[in-house]
DNA sequence: AACCAATCCAACCGCCAACAT
DNA sequence: AATGTTGGCGGTTGGATTGGT
């Protein structure tokens, strides 16, 4: 098969980094007219100087109308814990059980909040029972990813009920909201 | 007010499987 | 069967923000 011309140096440069509002609108507009699919083609046809991958990620994690961001509920927290214990780092699989949540958000949530909390609990327990430290502290964070997660986290899960819901009330003041984007899109598509 | 450290999260990268040619 | 392309996934990073001193 012929090599895809898009990667050769004389062709369109590829934009990276944060998405602009214009790019978002182009993507939303294009997908609502043509639907998703074949992301590389979509990126080119829409006139976006982005890779297909980048478009896909932006759409799935941020622009999709049904995506929910922030304010993860206690129920969701517990479900994440439960499913992670069952499946490990299968974020996309876990995300399928949390409607509107993306694998990326769950992954970030896990790493920044839950894993930290577990680590703290472990350290605390470790200090309480010095002498039984073995490899626990050194390997625990990594082994969370491994075969049997149930063994690697002690059962501090119930404590999660107590840990203060970590989310700020609303996020991304510096970014245009989904409502803004979609209302601009709807106005302009009339 | 200014600085520094910690935290958060959007977006990238690399790998792999599935599919197409 | 071999090779190329694409999409999906998990891991990682860089910049922005927040909190502490």
UniProtKB/TrEMBL annotation:
GO terms for cellular component: nucleus. The keyword Flavoprotein does not apply. Residues 11-63, 64-114 form the Myb-like domain. Residues 11-63, 64-118 form the HTH myb-type domain. One of its GO terms (molecular function) is DNA-binding transcription factor activity. PANTHER family: MYB TRANSCRIPTION FACTOR-RELATED-RELATED (PTHR45675), TRANSCRIPTION FACTOR MYB24 (PTHR45675:SF44). This is Myb-related protein 305-like protein.
């Amino acid at each position: 098969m012929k090599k895809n011309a898009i990667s050769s140096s004389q062709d369109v440069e590829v934009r990276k980094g944060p998405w602009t509002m214009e790019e978002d609108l182009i993507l939303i507009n294009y997908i609502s007219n043509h639907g998703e699919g074949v992301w590389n083609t979509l990126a080119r046809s829409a006139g976006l100087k982005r890779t297909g991958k980048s478009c896909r990620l932006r759409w799935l994690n941020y622009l999709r109308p049904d995506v929910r961001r922030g304010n993860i509920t206690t129920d969701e927290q517990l479900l994440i814990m439960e499913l992670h214990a069952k499946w490990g780092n299968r974020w996309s699989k876990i995300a399928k059980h949390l409607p509107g949540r993306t694998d990326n958000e769950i992954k970030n949530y896990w790493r920044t909040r839950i894993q930290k909390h577990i680590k703290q609990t472990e350290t605390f327990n470790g200090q309480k029972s010095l002498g039984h430290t073995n490899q626990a502290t050194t390997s625990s964070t990594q082994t969370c990813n491994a075969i049997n997660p149930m063994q690697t986290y002690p059962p501090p899960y119930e404590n999660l009920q107590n840990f203060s819901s970590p989310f700020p009330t609303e996020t991304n003041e510096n970014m245009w909201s989904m409502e803004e984007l979609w209302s601009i899109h709807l106005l302009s598509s009339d």
